[in-house]
Amino acid sequence: MVGNRNFSRPSWQLPESCATPEEVFFNRRQFVKLLGGTGIGAGLSGFGGIDFAEASEDPSAGLYPVSRNEAYTIERDITPEELSTTYNNFFEFGSHKQISSAAQALKIRPWEIAIDGMVDKPFVIGIDDLLKKMPLEERLYRHRCVERWSMTVPWSGFSLAKLVELAKPSSGVKYVRFETFQDSSVAGGQKQFWYPWPYIEGLTIEEATNELAFMVTGVYGKPLPKQMGAPLRLAVPWKYGFKSIKSIVKITFTQERPVSFWEELAANEYGFWANINPDVHHPRWRQDLEQPLGTNERIDTQIFNGYAEQVAHLYEGLKTEPLYR
Ligand code: MTE
């Protein structure tokens, strides 16, 4: 199960993408219930003394809230902000869910994104310049981890297709490769040498230009908090959450299929496609049910996470590909 970049990982170090100890999950639910019962939770902006006020000092703060695109709504309750911003996977800051405090060490200005590979002319663009060029909107999306917890999140951002347009890829491009920052002086997790840093993800060009592929820059009507992948992350809601790479610094247009961070570590668990399917189980987690974060509900998983209408056609004819892993 060790990746092929010659990493020697201690045998006890299982790749725990999206692994949440049940008791952590349970305790959080109990805590939220308690807060709800006492009314203490009203207006709470983060647990554990974490100060997210910095988000309001983000130079992009004035851009939000943005208007909602009603084409992307969901008949489900939005996950409370205090839950989704304190229960995160961001292995750069720790291999557990409570990384929101550690993630505040990430400096998100200046922040540049390199666009390279098979494009008309490679370029580097600062996040604030990019934000000026892109049409921002809010979309309510499902967000589902392979570990079976799910959220409903009001992301703000822009369609990835718009960014592809700006990049002007050449006609032979087959894939888009995304790369996260690498700086172990702020992200302690990157000192764990057995992980193949930096975090990499990839999409086919058809997936990247599908209407659902969304570049996220904000959430809950505010700039994206660091623990959720500020200042720029991906959201591809028909795929498991690990595909939604955070804090992106490079986007490369290529003919080669990118090998993702998790695929490199455990290809039998985390493949390139990772489309959500109730009938194809992860070796450690059944996928027929999902549990919305902060509830005791169990909901039937839908093929492509309920987005078949928008994405099923992308996979017609790809009969030999393991589309659900
Ligand atoms: N991106 C980076 N750079 N590093 C990560 O560890 N974790 C992934 C994905 N993107 C991860 C990442 C996983 S496993 C999930 S489920 C989602 O981010 C979690 O997003 P959230 O914390 O906003 O819910």
Overview in brief:
With 325 residues, this protein is of the alpha+beta class. It has helices at 22-38, 81-84, 127-133, 160-167, 205-208, 261-265, 308-311; strands spanning 112-117, 123-126, 137-144, 149-159, 175-180, 200-204, 214-219, 222-223, 233-235, 248-254, 289-292, 299-300. 42% of the residues are buried.
Order of helices and strands: HHEEHEEHEEHEEEEHEEH
Uncertain runs are 1-17, 19-51
CATH superfamily label: Oxidoreductase, molybdopterin-binding domain
CATH topology: Sulfite Oxidase, Chain A, domain 2
Task: Give the secondary structure arrangement, pairings included.
Blueprint: H1 22-38, H2 81-84, E1 112-117, E2 123-126, H3 127-133, E3 137-144, E4 149-159, H4 160-167, E5 175-180, E6 200-204, H5 205-208, E7 214-219, E8 222-223, E9 233-235, E10 248-254, H6 261-265, E11 289-292, E12 299-300, H7 308-311
Parallel strand pairs: 1-10, 4-11
Antiparallel strand pairs: 1-2, 3-4, 4-7, 5-6, 5-10, 7-8, 7-9, 11-12
The protein binds ligand MTE.
Ligand MTE binds next to loops.
